[in-house]
Amino acid sequence: MSDLASCLLDREEPFFSTFSREFVLNPDVIYLMAGQKGSMPAPVLRCLKEDIDALARDPFRIHAEDPRATREAVARGYRAHVDEIAITRNATDALTQILMGIDWQPGDEALVSPLEHPAGIATLSRIACRYGVAIRVFGLPEPAEATAAGIVEAVARRIRPGRTKLLFFSSPLWPNGMRMPERALAQLAQAHGIITVVDGAHFAGMLAPELSASGVDFWAFSGHKWQCGPGGTGVLYARNRVSEANPNPLPHLHLIRSAAMRDVPFDGSRPEGFDIGSALTQSGAPEGALWHALSNVCRRWDEIGRVRIEAWILGLADYMRERIAEAFGPQALLQPTADVTLASGIVAFNPFVREAHRESLSLNETFREQLLTQYRIRISGGALGPSGWPALADDTPCAFKPGVIPNRDPYGLKPKPLAHPHRANACVWTQREQVDHFVTCARQLARTLERRHAHD
Q1: Which of 306, 349, 356, 379 suits 248 as a labelling partner, its CA being 20 to 30 A distant?
Q2: Do domains 3-16+306-452 and 59-300 have the same CATH topology?
Q3: How does pLDDT run along the chain (456 residues), one tens digit per residue?
Q4: Where are the alpha helices (DSSP H) in 230-381?
Q5: DSSP assigned state of 204
Q6: How far is it, in rounded angstroms, from Cα 118 to Cα 422?
Q7: CA pair distance 295, 253, nearest whole angstrom
Q8: Does residue 207 sit in helix, strand or coil?
Q9: Where are the domains of the chain?
Q10: Which of 350, 354, 412 is nearest to 382 (CA)?
Q11: Contacts of 426 (CB under 8 A, 6+ apart)
C-alpha cells in the first residue's frame, strides 16, 4: 500500500469509526458482507419504523414521500437527470425490465461476460429462447494480467458489426469483484451502434456513480446492498437524452411493468419530453416506507460525500488485499492488482495452496462455515462453475468444477477457470483492526484445514 493510501486511512479512520456506530450490526460478529445485504443506519431505520406505523394508521396515503422526491434524491447522488431514474424492487427487477424491454429481433446477438450473476443469465437465457437471440461470450484476461485496455480489446474482438445488439456486463463483477471499465466499454459499444446494459448491483453505495457521464444506456442497481437501504428497493437508470457522453439515438424500450398510460408511448419509442423514469416507477402500490428509507440513506451518503465513501472503501479494500497477500501469497488474490481502475470494495481470494484444495467445493464451503461458527466472521463465496453460460462445443468435460469462477481465455474462449472464490467486503462500517483479525483467523483456519485434508 502506498504512503498516500495509508495516510488516507489514517486521516479518515476516526470519522468512519464514528460513522460505523450508526449501524446496529451484531457486535459479536464481524460482518464483511455488504454485497449480500447492507445494514441501514440507525436514523434511517428509526424513520422507516415511524413511516410503517404511520402508513398502517392511514394506508390511503400509500407513499411516505412523494415518489418524485425519492427519484430526485437518487438522481442527485447518482449524477443523473430525474427523468432517467426509476425506483424498482431490486437490481434483478430493474435488470429484467431493461432486458425484456429491448426491441429484440430474431438473429440479434447479445455479447456478455462469462462472470455474470444468475439474475442476468436467467433473463438473457429466456430472451434467447423467446426471441431467437444468440448469446455470445467474451473472455477476460487473467487477473494478474488484467488491464482496462485489455478488457476493451477482449470485448472488441467478439463484436460482430450489424449483429451484436447488446453489450451486457456487471460492474463490479459478482464472482471476483473486478470493476469493469464502464466508460470505455460504452464508447466501444457506441462506435458500433450497440446498446449497453450494466448490472450495477454492487456499484451504488460503494462507488460514486456518474451515470449521465458514463455513456451507458441502462444501469440496474440494488438499494439494499452497499447503498444500505431496505430490502425491496432498487434503481433503474435509463439514458433519456442525446449528449456528448452518448450521441447515439435513444434505444427503444418497451415498458414491461408499468401502470402509466397518459402521454406514454406503447411502441417502445422515446419521444422528446417523455419521463421514462416516472413511467417505469408507476407499478401498483409499493410499501412507500421503503422508498422513503432509500431516499433517506441516499441523502446520508450525499451528506458524507460519495467520493469520500468510495475512497475509504477502496483504501480499506487495498489494505485487506495487502494483508491477504502477506498471509497467503499473491496467488491467493483472484482479482486484478496492477490496474487500480479495476479495483472495488469486494476482495476475492482463496487461502489454499494445493490446486485440489482451491477447487474443492466442500472444503471451501467448510472454510466459510467454520470462519463463522468458530471465529464469528461472516464472508461469502462461490461462483457458478458449470452452471453458468451454456458450454461451448469444444469444451472438455468438467472444464469448470462446481463453485469455481468460470472464466474463458479472451482469445480462443478456452475454459480458464479461477479458483473457488471467497469474498470479503470492505464495508463502510469496517475498521482496519477488524481486517487484521479476519486475516489472522483466516490463516489459522486455512492451515488447520490443509493439515486435516493433506491426503485428499
Answers
A1: 306
A2: no
A3: 777 778 999 999 999 999 999 999 999 999 999 999 999 999 999 999 999 999 999 999 889 999 999 999 999 999 999 999 999 999 999 999 999 999 999 999 999 999 999 999 999 999 999 999 999 999 999 998 899 999 999 999 999 999 999 999 999 999 999 999 999 999 999 999 999 999 999 999 999 999 999 999 999 999 999 999 999 999 999 999 999 999 999 999 999 989 888 889 999 999 999 999 999 999 888 888 999 999 999 999 999 999 999 999 999 999 999 999 999 999 999 999 989 999 999 999 999 999 999 999 999 999 999 999 999 999 999 999 887 776 665 566 567 899 999 999 999 899 999 999 999 999 999 999 999 999 999 999 999 999 999 877
A4: 276-281, 288-304, 306-328, 355-359, 361-375
A5: B
A6: 18
A7: 26
A8: strand
A9: 3-16+306-452, 59-300
A10: 350
A11: 32, 313, 314, 316, 317, 319, 320, 345, 347, 435
- Cα separations in angstroms, 351 against 324, 326, 380, 423: 8, 11, 14, 11
Phi, psi of 152 (to 5 degrees): -60, -40
What is the residue-wise DSSP string for 105-174? -TT-EEEE-TT--HHHHHHHHHHHHHH-PEEEE-----GGG--HHHHHHHHHHH--TTTEEEEEEESS-T
| Cell reading at 266 | 406503447
HSE-CB of 39 using CA atoms within 13 angstroms? 19
Eight-class DSSP state of 333? B
User: In terms of C-beta density within 10 A (0-12 exposed, 13-18 middle, 19 or more buried), how is residue 276 classed?
Assistant: buried
The secondary structure element, H or E, covering residue 57 is: helix 42-57
pLDDT of residue 394: 58
User: What local confidence, expressed as pLDDT, does residue 43 receive?
Assistant: 97
**Other Cβ atoms within 10 Å of 454 Cβ, number:** 9
CA–CA gap between residue 210 and residue 48 (Å, rounded): 28
Grid look-up 407499478 returns: 283
Query: Is CATH 3.40.640.10 what the domain over 59-300 is classified as, yes or no?
Result: yes
Q: Name the amino acid, one letter, at 381.
A: G
Q: In angstroms, rounded to a whole number, what is the distance separating the alpha carbons of residues 55 and 50?
A: 9
Residues 6+ apart with CB under 8 A from 298: 73, 74, 76, 77, 227, 229
CA distance 350 to 342: 19
Q: What is the pLDDT at residue 391?
A: 65
Give the Cα separation of 391 and 233 in Å (integer). Answer: 34
- Is the separation of the CB atoms in 137 and 389 below 8 Å? yes
CB atoms within 10 A of CB 210: 15
Distance (Å, whole) CA 286 – CA 289? 9
Class of domain 3-16+306-452: alpha beta
Are 215 and 246 in contact by the 8 Å Cβ rule? The answer is yes
